């Protein structure tokens, strides 16, 4: 029997409350399994399954608006947990694709006996860090230079110089930090009306998000995951990047499933105009650039609500919209280090990250859930809407699920059996051959989730709607 009083259902009801959806909708979800799934103290299966169930319920509500028919949503906790590192399970023509690692992106001991984490997987961040440290691109030189800094001093200097790093705090130290106080007041996902517009019924389709156009101006994992989830319920997603921005390699392939992908450079007048044309005819505009970056070019929420009344503007940043760090760079790994998660996951050898990118994938699916709730509100009451979340609030929400004792999570396997991963996977023919990847985790009784487009290289398509 399903335990609807357990932690996963409690988390799901929290999310339904954030979307102002009836708590009774949790009864339409069938969630099986429990943590631990992988060896981590955090309830990543609980968090992943709850947010995926919420996306399924939101899609079901859109289907009910179209047809009057409800449906059952199902999620397996083990499958949800491994989906938080889904790129690990991709195969090209039956082989593991090449995975690139940034050799300088590590934890380092600092002068004061503490640890710091340097994020250096993009060339601009790596080069900024090397300039601040005054050393060449060499691990031993970087390690020696960092050893001359106190931890918090290093963190401040890195961000001040355009790099990205974290001082490794404990949970208790983070709780006393001024920015933690600001994050504590923010919901995991926020859905805000930002303009007036008449109700816009959903276009005719046999899928929950069929006929919905999504512009995806996001990078790395969390933001792209949001649009990928919308695509699995039928949305037409057009990802926009520009030549010259560092890409994320295999991660872009993983989060690009179901999407078209094109290049535009907003510094060029004609391409700027093209993005405005696309935005004027989209339903969802999703972005994860640093606060103010796109607004300065005319693509902020208020400007787009005026250009396209009824738009759903989805926005993600690292640290939330309030507090002293609101404009700082940040990534899943950086947030784990700064907020106590890496310290708590570590051992005598030093801090460690979780074995999954839980903050990224949970954060992205929180945004997808919010976007679908906003689309339902647009259809019934009208308006333009903003959906926003941050990596910091997603991390806090994961921590709030509670922790497991070492003697419990220590018995968890490093991975699910290969035959289980194979059962959870599907494949599709792409431009470079057949690609295998994890299938959508959410089960839908009436509108099975699926992706209709294979992942492609960034910029593969023209910047036009299908």
What does this structure look like?
The protein has 466 residues and is of the alpha/beta class. 38% of the residues lie in helices and 16% in strands. The chain has 18 helices and 16 strands. The chain has helices spanning 7-18, 44-67, 77-82, 123-133, 139-146, 151-160, 171-175, 178-184, 222-232, 250-255, 269-280, 301-307, 332-339, 341-345, 358-381, 391-399, 406-409, 418-424; strands spanning 29-32, 73-76, 91-92, 107-109, 115-118, 165-167, 190-195, 213-217, 236-241, 259-263, 284-287, 312-317, 384-390, 425-430, 433-438, 443-444. The strands form four sheets. A seven-stranded mixed sheet has the order 7-13-12-11-8-9-10. Strands 1-2-16 form a three-stranded mixed sheet. Strands 3-15-14 form a three-stranded antiparallel sheet. Helix 12 links the parallel strand 11 and strand 12. Helix 2 (44-67) packs parallel to helix 15. The longest helix is centred in the N-terminal third of the chain and has 24 residues, at 44-67. It is globular.
Question: Top keywords for this entry?
Answer:
single chain; 466 residues; alpha/beta; seven-stranded mixed β-sheet; three-stranded mixed β-sheet; 18 helices; 38% helix; globular
Number of strands: 16
3D shape: globular
- Largest β-sheet summary: 7 strands, mixed
Distance, first to last CA: 45 Å
* Rg, Cα atoms, Å: 21 Å
Helical content band: 25-40%
Whole-number average pLDDT? Answer: 94
Low-confidence stretches: none
Determine the strand fraction and express it as a percent band.
15-25%
Look at the helices and sheets and give the structural class. Answer: alpha/beta
Number of helices: 18
Q: In order across it, which strands form the biggest sheet? A: 7-13-12-11-8-9-10
């Amino acid at each position: 029997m399903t335990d609807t009083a357990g932690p996963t259902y409690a988390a799901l009801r929290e999310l339904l409350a954030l979307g102002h959806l009836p708590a009774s909708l949790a009864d339409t979800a069938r969630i099986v399994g429990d943590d631990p799934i992988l060896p981590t103290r955090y309830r990543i299966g609980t968090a992943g399954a709850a947010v995926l169930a919420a996306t399924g319920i939101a899609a079901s509500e859109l289907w009910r608006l179209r047809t009057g028919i409800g449906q059952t949503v199902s999620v397996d906790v083990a499958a949800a947990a491994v989906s938080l590192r889904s790129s690990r399970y991709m195969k090209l023509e039956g082989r593991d694709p090449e995975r690139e690692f940034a050799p300088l992106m590590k934890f380092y001991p600092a002068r004061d006996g503490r640890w710091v984490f340097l994020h250096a997987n993009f060339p601009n961040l790596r080069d900024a860090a090397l300039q601040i440290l005054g050393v060449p691109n060499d691990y031993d030189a970087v390690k020696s230079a960092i050893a001359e800094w106190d931890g918090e001093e290093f963190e401040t200097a890195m961000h001040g110089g355009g790099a990205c790093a974290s001082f490794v705090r404990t949970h208790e130290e983070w709780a006393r930090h001024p920015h933690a106080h600001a994050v504590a007041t923010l919901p995991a996902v926020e859905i805000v009306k930002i303009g007036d517009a008449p109700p816009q019924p959903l276009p005719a389709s046999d899928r929950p998000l069929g006929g919905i156009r999504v512009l995806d101006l996001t990078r790395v994992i969390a933001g792209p995951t949001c649009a990928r989830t919308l695509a699995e319920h039928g949305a037409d997603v057009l990802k926009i990047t520009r030549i010259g921005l560092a890409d994320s390699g295999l991660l872009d392939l993983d989060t690009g499933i179901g999407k078209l992908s094109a290049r535009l450079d907003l510094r060029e007048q004609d391409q700027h105009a093209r993005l405005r044309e696309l935005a004027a005819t989209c339903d969802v505009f999703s972005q994860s650039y640093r606060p103010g970056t796109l607004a300065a070019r005319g693509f902020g929420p208020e400007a787009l609500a005026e250009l396209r009344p009824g738009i759903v503007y989805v926005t993600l940043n690292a640290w939330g919209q309030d507090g002293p760090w609101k404009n700082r760079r940040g990534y899943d790994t950086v947030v784990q280090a700064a907020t106590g998660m890496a310290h708590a996951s570590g051992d005598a050898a030093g801090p460690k990250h979780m074995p999954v990118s839980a903050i990224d994938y949970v954060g992205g699916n929180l945004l997808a859930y919010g976007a679908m709730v906003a689309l339902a509100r647009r259809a019934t009451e009208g308006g333009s809407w903003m959906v926003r979340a941050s990596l910091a609030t997603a991390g806090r929400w994961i921590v709030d699920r509670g922790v497991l004792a070492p003697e419990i999570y220590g018995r968890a396997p490093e991975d699910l059996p290969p035959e289980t991963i194979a059962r959870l996977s599907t494949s599709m023919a792409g431009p470079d051959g057949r690609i295998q990847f994890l299938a959508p985790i959410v089960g839908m009784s009436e509108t099975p989730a699926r992706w209709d487009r294979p992942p492609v290289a960034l910029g593969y398509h023209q910047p036009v709607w299908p």
